[in-house]
Amino acid sequence: MTDTNTPSAIPTLGRYAQLDRVRAPHDMRNLSVEQLKQLADELRSETIDAVSTTGGHLGASLGVVELTVALHAVFDTPDDRVIWDVGHQAYPHKILTGRRERIRTLRQPGGLSGFTRRSESEYDPFGAAHSSTSISAGLGMAVAHHLRAEEDPSYRERNVIAVIGDGSISAGMAYEAMNNASHCGPGAERLIVVLNDNEMSIAPPVGAMSSYLSRLMSSRKFLSLRELAGKMAKRLPGRLERTAKKADEYARGIMTGGTLFEELGFYYVGPVDGHDMNQLVHILRNLRDAEDVGPVLLHVITEKGHGYTPAESAGDKYHAVSKFNVVTGEQKKGPAGPPSYTSVFARELVRQAATDDRIVTVTAAMPSGTGLDKFAKAYPDRFFDVGIAEQHAVTFAAGMATEGLRPFCAIYSTFLQRAYDQVMHDVVLQKLPVRFAIDRAGLVGADGATHAGSFDIAYLGCLPGITLMAPSTELELLHMTATAVAFDEGPIGLRYPRGNGLGLDLPAAGEILEIGRGRIVREMSRQSGPEQGGIAILSLGPRLAEALKAADMLAAQGLSPTVADARFAKPLDTALIEQLARNHAVLITIEEGSVGGFGSYVMTHLAKTGLLDRVRFRPMTLPDRFIDHNTQDAQYIEAGLDAAAIVATALKALGVPQTRQMA
């Protein structure tokens, strides 16, 4: 069910004449083009105002305002399906589809998701928080509609529109889907791919001639003429028929640049000015009503951040912003704090590269997010941004490793999942020394479950021969970065979280750690209770800070535990694990990862050595469910990975009465 707009929930209600009348897309269907233009202007202002209070991905959403209005005005959504890829383009879409009253809860605890989500609205037919999935999903929907219509004559085939933009077209999956579309039969004829080109990287500048050609090629007259020409060509001998078809494709390709898409079996229309409502509405109506054209690719040129001067003039076009002042565009900054884990990694890598020209870096469209923008500035010839193409990034790095370079492949944990086969087959199986810098490991806050780095320990640690590190502090990350540079024996990964470190003093250079060796951080003091052996807490990664808080809480009850930092998920420090198991009654492991990770590796070793029979082992992991967007601290409390949860786990394992737990 969609929400009902109410004055109390919409602070701008009464400010926008057209937008206030739109409670759902059907309210737009009888508006004139001039009214739709006004609606787009108001929608852009509402989007800016809303995101100024929440933060979020503003630039891409501002670029598709006119396109959003035109799509919902022309097509019969939600019966006609519109898929936004990547979903962070969809803020204007959310406002127009019954969620305006909740738009200021965007990315807030309990509020709207920053991406499309099927459970949130019937107008979100597919969740797309990662990129380049829309054409595959849309093709599946179109084929499904056709099969249903064949079975049920009363069922109306739907149009399916996949809006793919913000760099998503660079991923191989998009081309795999397009290559398949021309062979999927009649169902694919209702698929319209809208290429939202907001980087001016594919098409020539939009001008009057290209606009005219786009409207012409999408018109009924042109399509009918082309169909007639096609029928005539079929009467020609086979070779001449094929020649005529190619001539048609290449003639339009020369004029528009669409030959590639034609070769993939799409009818290409474009490029089109994505901010010209008159063009968009007429072309979309032509495509909606066209028959037997086959899958269509509409190439739309938009400007990221369009219509908001601070965004247009910013280098990143306000791709992702914190809360900001609408008038000035100035983003609100929190108080200065410790450096982020990402910046510490980048600092040490840049330092190492000054004396090691074998260090090269690869990222998949996230140079600033991974900190490699600093490396790129210092060593542009050794920095490679491959676009949204994680699979290629990994194998590209593998190729460089075969020739003696020291590649660092910096990818968010959640995006590295997309290249798992390449990690296994192209890197690990061949024992190539690719360094994986796995940013955003663990829970990530406002980006929610889609962007959480929950699974990398489990999916990497099971691979033979990989080394996997997890720093507990920014100082440890400094050392692990230096360790990764020096490690040439095979693949190695270092996973680190989103956010700031603890504010520790950092030396000028990192130290090389011994592979597979953890450390005791705090020794158990003498126990005051009757329990034999006491408690050991073995932490992997940044939960060490919470483990130390828990140790203080337990010490207040006379149960000071031993606290250890594992440092390595693989290879395990088996000597440390065995020491803790032999000398303590309870052994707790804690990690910022899913079931099947570090705790499982420890438990397997304990079982094999027989030590699992003599120690009360309690693994603490993320729960077996997805955790919604919130602050990181709140997410870890919800996950049961905070100090209080560690204390409760320890006391329950010891069998301490509830009254003592509450003391």
Automatic annotation (TrEMBL):
<dbReference type="InterPro" id="IPR005477">
    <property type="entry name" value="Dxylulose-5-P_synthase"/>
</dbReference>
<feature type="binding site">
    <location>
        <begin position="167"/>
        <end position="168"/>
    </location>
    <ligand>
        <name>thiamine diphosphate</name>
    </ligand>
</feature>
<feature type="binding site">
    <location>
        <position position="198"/>
    </location>
    <ligand>
        <name>Mg(2+)</name>
    </ligand>
</feature>
<comment type="similarity">
    <text>Belongs to the transketolase family. DXPS subfamily.</text>
</comment>
<dbReference type="InterPro" id="IPR049557">
    <property type="entry name" value="Transketolase_CS"/>
</dbReference>
<keyword id="KW-0786">Thiamine pyrophosphate</keyword>
<dbReference type="InterPro" id="IPR009014">
    <property type="entry name" value="Transketo_C/PFOR_II"/>
</dbReference>
<dbReference type="Pfam" id="PF02779">
    <property type="entry name" value="Transket_pyr"/>
</dbReference>
<dbReference type="GO" id="GO:0000287">
    <property type="term" value="F:magnesium ion binding"/>
</dbReference>
<feature type="binding site">
    <location>
        <begin position="129"/>
        <end position="131"/>
    </location>
    <ligand>
        <name>thiamine diphosphate</name>
    </ligand>
</feature>
<dbReference type="InterPro" id="IPR020826">
    <property type="entry name" value="Transketolase_BS"/>
</dbReference>
<comment type="function">
    <text>Catalyzes the acyloin condensation reaction between C atoms 2 and 3 of pyruvate and glyceraldehyde 3-phosphate to yield 1-deoxy-D-xylulose-5-phosphate (DXP).</text>
</comment>
<dbReference type="InterPro" id="IPR029061">
    <property type="entry name" value="THDP-binding"/>
</dbReference>
<dbReference type="GO" id="GO:0009228">
    <property type="term" value="P:thiamine biosynthetic process"/>
</dbReference>
<dbReference type="GO" id="GO:0019682">
    <property type="term" value="P:glyceraldehyde-3-phosphate metabolic process"/>
</dbReference>
<keyword id="KW-0784">Thiamine biosynthesis</keyword>
<comment type="subunit">
    <text>Homodimer.</text>
</comment>
<comment type="pathway">
    <text>Metabolic intermediate biosynthesis; 1-deoxy-D-xylulose 5-phosphate biosynthesis; 1-deoxy-D-xylulose 5-phosphate from D-glyceraldehyde 3-phosphate and pyruvate: step 1/1.</text>
</comment>
<feature type="binding site">
    <location>
        <position position="198"/>
    </location>
    <ligand>
        <name>thiamine diphosphate</name>
    </ligand>
</feature>
<feature type="binding site">
    <location>
        <position position="390"/>
    </location>
    <ligand>
        <name>thiamine diphosphate</name>
    </ligand>
</feature>
<dbReference type="InterPro" id="IPR033248">
    <property type="entry name" value="Transketolase_C"/>
</dbReference>
<protein>
    <recommendedName>
        <fullName>1-deoxy-D-xylulose-5-phosphate synthase</fullName>
        <ecNumber>2.2.1.7</ecNumber>
    </recommendedName>
</protein>
<keyword id="KW-0479">Metal-binding</keyword>
<feature type="binding site">
    <location>
        <position position="308"/>
    </location>
    <ligand>
        <name>thiamine diphosphate</name>
    </ligand>
</feature>
<dbReference type="Pfam" id="PF13292">
    <property type="entry name" value="DXP_synthase_N"/>
</dbReference>
<dbReference type="GO" id="GO:0008661">
    <property type="term" value="F:1-deoxy-D-xylulose-5-phosphate synthase activity"/>
</dbReference>
<keyword id="KW-0414">Isoprene biosynthesis</keyword>
<keyword id="KW-0460">Magnesium</keyword>
<dbReference type="InterPro" id="IPR005475">
    <property type="entry name" value="Transketolase-like_Pyr-bd"/>
</dbReference>
<dbReference type="GO" id="GO:0030976">
    <property type="term" value="F:thiamine pyrophosphate binding"/>
</dbReference>
<feature type="binding site">
    <location>
        <position position="88"/>
    </location>
    <ligand>
        <name>thiamine diphosphate</name>
    </ligand>
</feature>
<dbReference type="Pfam" id="PF02780">
    <property type="entry name" value="Transketolase_C"/>
</dbReference>
<dbReference type="GO" id="GO:0016114">
    <property type="term" value="P:terpenoid biosynthetic process"/>
</dbReference>
<feature type="binding site">
    <location>
        <position position="166"/>
    </location>
    <ligand>
        <name>Mg(2+)</name>
    </ligand>
</feature>
<feature type="domain" description="Transketolase-like pyrimidine-binding">
    <location>
        <begin position="339"/>
        <end position="504"/>
    </location>
</feature>
<keyword id="KW-0808">Transferase</keyword>
